[in-house]
Amino acid sequence: MSDSIQERYLVGYALAAKKQHSFIQPSLIEHSKQRGIDLVKLDPTKSLVEQGKLDCIIHKLYDVDWKENLHKFREKCPGVPVIDSPEAIERLHNRVSMLEVITQLRFPVSDSERFGVPEQVVVMDSSVLSGGGALGELKFPVIAKPLDADGSAKSHKMFLIYDQEGMKILKAPIVLQEFVNHGGVIFKVYVVGDHVKCVKRRSLPDISEEKIGTSKGSLPFSQISNLTAQEDKNKEYGEDRSLETVEMPPSSFLTDLAKAMRESMGLNLFNFDVIRDARDANRYLIIDINYFPGYAKMPSYEPVLTEFFWDMVTKKKHV
Ligand SMILES: O=P(O)(O)O[C@@H]1[C@@H](OP(=O)(O)O)[C@H](OP(=O)(O)O)[C@H](O)[C@H](OP(=O)(O)O)[C@H]1OP(=O)(O)O
Ligand SMILES: Nc1ncnc2c1ncn2[C@@H]1O[C@H](COP(=O)(O)OP(=O)(O)O)[C@@H](O)[C@H]1O
Ligand SMILES: [Mg+2]
Ligand SMILES: [Mg+2]
């Protein structure tokens, strides 16, 4: 079929400048174009109905004006898929409601693999942090994570806390989460509609009982899974740890889990971080869920995203 008679579709995107730069790559534009899909940048400040005959919208913007703009568009054009609904995305902006998704899943667990989330408590009042009772049943070491997961640099600033003294650096609201030894590797599971792809990434190294006994205070870190091997080495988080020999979790387990999460959250574009308990190889813990992550780092990102756009514009089912 020649280009002139092939039906063409319009996918509008509304993304922050950094995200646009990493996601809307020439290779993706070209791939989609070949499939009859044109990617068009939206002006989030202007009415969406006046920006072309859109067949689908993708977005990662959180301000009130944008949500209002989207809301009006959804009312006027209810048949056009908006990927995803702001209300569904919102749940991932808080590290407590994010992991409640997992604890509420009614997913038939396989005979071997089990899943859950690490024990955690949320502290809303900074004065509680200086007293001894903030941890409840949890034991040191813990990871302290900002409660808000709103995409700001601040929301990724974490601390490994070894003792009560280390708690002094923290400010509420904060989530204190049990540190689980997991062999220094996380599995990042990317979800794009029906498509599920798992990759391995570096993580914090295990902490031995001996180290727990001798370490004091706190250790700050941020976005450790995005460090290169060299940066990882320089930061002295451990030896240069090769990921190649690490066994992947069974893919059917991850696919089933991703499907259950997708349906439960009503989201199509997200990834989640999974660790495997070093003391129990069949126990997997979900520690983080991210809306619209860095897909350009996912293998085959162009064909996978193009296929997803195709499914959306041709009105195949989406959650
Ligand atoms: O920028 P990238 O490509 O590293 O992507 C970030 C993600 O990295 P990942 O793809 O999981 O390795 C990153 O994932 P992590 O939180 O590091 O697990 C987030 O999704 C981040 O978005 P936000 O800051 O939480 O809104 C993502 O940032 P944005 O691209 O959305 O700003
Ligand atoms: N409970 C935990 N036990 C051990 N390591 C953890 C735990 N939670 C987080 N980490 C490590 O900290 C990193 C950052 O935590 P994460 O919750 O994924 O925050 P972010 O949203 O910034 O990616 C993880 O990729 C992992 O390396
Ligand atoms: Mg993470
Ligand atoms: Mg995250």
Automatic annotation (TrEMBL):
Mg(2+) 2 binds at D288, N290. One of its GO terms (molecular function) is inositol-3,4,5,6-tetrakisphosphate 1-kinase activity. Belongs to the ITPK1 family. Mg(2+) 1 binds at D273, D288. 1D-myo-inositol 1,3,4-trisphosphate binds at K19, K60, H156, K188, N290, G294. It catalyses: 1D-myo-inositol 3,4,5,6-tetrakisphosphate + ATP = 1D-myo-inositol 1,3,4,5,6-pentakisphosphate + ADP + H(+). Its EC number is 2.7.1.134. Residues 99-318 form the ATP-grasp domain. It comes from the Eukaryota. Monomer. ATP binds at residues 95, 145, 177-188, 203. This is Inositol-tetrakisphosphate 1-kinase. It comes from Cardamine amara subsp. amara.
